[in-house]
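Audit log entry. Action: structure prediction of a protein-small molecule complex. Ligand: magnesium ion. The ligand was supplied as SMILES and no pocket hint was given, so placement is left entirely to the predictor. Protonation state taken as written. Sequence taken verbatim from the request; no trimming, no tag removal. Recorded inputs:
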Amino acid sequence: MKIALTCNLKKKDASKPADYFSEWDSQETVDAIASALRSRGHNVEAIDVQYPNLVSYFRRNQVDMVFNIAEGTCGRFRESEVPAILDYLDIPYTGSNTFSLALALNKTLTKKILKAENIPTPAFQLFATGKEELNPALRFPLIVKPNCEGSAKGINSSNVVNSREDLYRKIGEVISAYKQEALVEEFIDGRELTVGVLENGSARVLPILEIDFSTCKKSGEYFYSWKMKEYQGDAALGTTPTFHCPARLDPETEARVKEVALKTHRAVGCFDISRTDIRLDKDNVPYVLEINPLPGLDPKESNFPLMAYAAGLSYEDLIEAILLSASERNKA
Ligand SMILES: Nc1ncnc2c1ncn2[C@@H]1O[C@H](COP(=O)(O)OP(=O)(O)O)[C@@H](O)[C@H]1O
Ligand SMILES: [Mg+2]
């Protein structure tokens, strides 16, 4: 197959905020996906979609499929940029469609759908101006997050607040730094899990990954914050979580967590691949924080490949499974 691999490559630009490029992909990830596809006999060209003329590229270069990992560049619907162009040109692509990508990037709208589907998600309130009255039903500690970011951008330990004063200060900071609404949620103080769904005809749920932050005391961070993700594995900083895959769960909880992840994948309308972030409360209720239809695919660093390896897949198998799922869907 002739495949274009669409991506946004991380850049170095000191004039931008430190987390500006956090969602974007490294050259290593792009190279790893390209060589996995080549090893299965495909002809692959990687395209950094800052390339200004994506439409004319595809008019000049006929491809059978786009393997899309592009996080997009501008605004609230950025993950849909490339799929929207591909829809317009009628070129098939891997992964979720424009609608699901835009939906999943909006945490609050996703949570409304989860609630409608009876999928547990932390109680929440959206602050657009920062002047809204706090819903008295919400219980501290609360966590404040930008509504439409990923890679834990704008989320550090100071985003967990215990007073109204700290809450409103943090809401104001998030709204002004990220030029968007702040999502306030009850903080679920429990185990952190992430769950991969990989479709192969019927969707399969990969072994659950548990991320244990008890080994990160030195870092001053105690959950999957921006610093924890950006500097993962840095012993000097102490950002060294321990991964357990499969997660250390009793069979009943494991089944419930997997069911919730699969329901979330379907409720949001994801295709081929997704990763759902979950926190277990003290009664083992799995609260869905968000779903990632474009999970990181760094073969060494990212969560999703770890789950695929635990399922007995190689990196090449994982990449090929995504491609096969998309090919099957586009045949239909
Ligand atoms: N309501 C919450 N309760 C507990 N921890 C949370 C909550 N929301 C976010 N977190 C922590 O912050 C991390 C990043 O939040 P998440 O909603 O997944 O955003 P992102 O899209 O940036 O990954 C989570 O993986 C988790 O460690
Ligand atoms: Mg997350």
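Audit: result stored. The CA atoms of residues 31 and 194 lie 25 Å apart. The radius of gyration is 19 Å.
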